[in-house]
């Protein structure tokens, strides 16, 4: 049976979301879209070039302007492997840049995935998902795109009609984790910042960083958008965190 085509979901007047895939084996993070009058800022690039092309087509179908900038919430593959398809400047925290330079130097291919999984079987879920994500394009032209611009603590990007604020929050999932605020829209993109470390790095008993998640609750924001969950309104997010 063919899979139903997903579509952009409108969160607020200027904020849209390409939703995450509900099957965790796909490891497909959502992609945020912040629409300025002069172009869109993307929160993460997608887990593959093929996915990036689908989202780019959906932007046009929704009457949105083309992408102007990509912001990485962190360096993990399901957030950055589509970047080569966008062909626009990328902004990220300096620790994300450092990690991606190391990732870009690896010889990504099916053979490499197999060899690394044999070396550490805990990589199998992630590396199997990478293989499936890249099936449409293959590896010959694939490249990881490190950011063009980095920051340390905070950064602001102004689009025509909307301002976007980036804040480094770190955490156990990825040292470079960044949240993306859209104050005028009351939307906060959380990335994966409060999630446990990746499976192959996770110690027994590791769980979500609830203290970090609670620290980001703010009455000024109505929408909280994680990369692998549906958007939550403020009251729902507060209740989920025991607030």
TrEMBL record:
InterPro entries: Metallo-B-lactamas, NDM-1-like, RibonucZ/Hydroxyglut_hydro. It comes from the Bacteria. Residues 28-228 form the Metallo-beta-lactamase domain. This is Metallo-beta-lactamase domain-containing protein. It comes from Streptomyces synnematoformans.
């Amino acid at each position: 049976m063919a899979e139903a085509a997903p579509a952009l979901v409108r969160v607020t007047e200027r904020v849209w979301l390409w939703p995450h895939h509900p099957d965790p084996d796909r490891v497909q993070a959502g992609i945020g879209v912040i629409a300025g009058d002069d172009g869109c800022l993307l929160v993460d690039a997608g887990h593959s070039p093929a996915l990036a092309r689908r989202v780019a087509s959906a932007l046009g179908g929704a009457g949105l302007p083309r992408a102007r900038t990509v912001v990485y919430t962190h360096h993990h593959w399901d957030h950055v492997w589509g970047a080569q398809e966008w062909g626009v400047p990328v902004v990220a925290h300096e620790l994300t840049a450092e990690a991606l330079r190391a990732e870009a130097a690896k010889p990504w291919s099916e053979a490499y995935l197999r060899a690394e999984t044999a070396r550490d079987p805990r990589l199998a879920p992630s590396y199997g998902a990478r293989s499936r994500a890249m099936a449409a394009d293959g590896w010959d032209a694939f490249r990881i795109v490190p950011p063009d611009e980095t920051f340390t603590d905070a950064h602001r990007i102004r689009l025509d009609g909307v301002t976007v604020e980036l804040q480094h929050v770190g955490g156990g999932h990825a040292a470079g984790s960044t949240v993306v605020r859209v104050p005028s829209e009351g939307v906060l993109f959380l990335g994966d910042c409060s999630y446990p470390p990746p499976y192959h790095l996770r110690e027994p008993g590791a769980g979500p960083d609830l203290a970090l998640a609670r620290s980001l609750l703010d009455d000024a924001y109505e929408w909280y958008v994680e990369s692998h969950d549906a958007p939550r309104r403020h009251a729902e997010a507060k209740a989920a965190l025991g607030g």
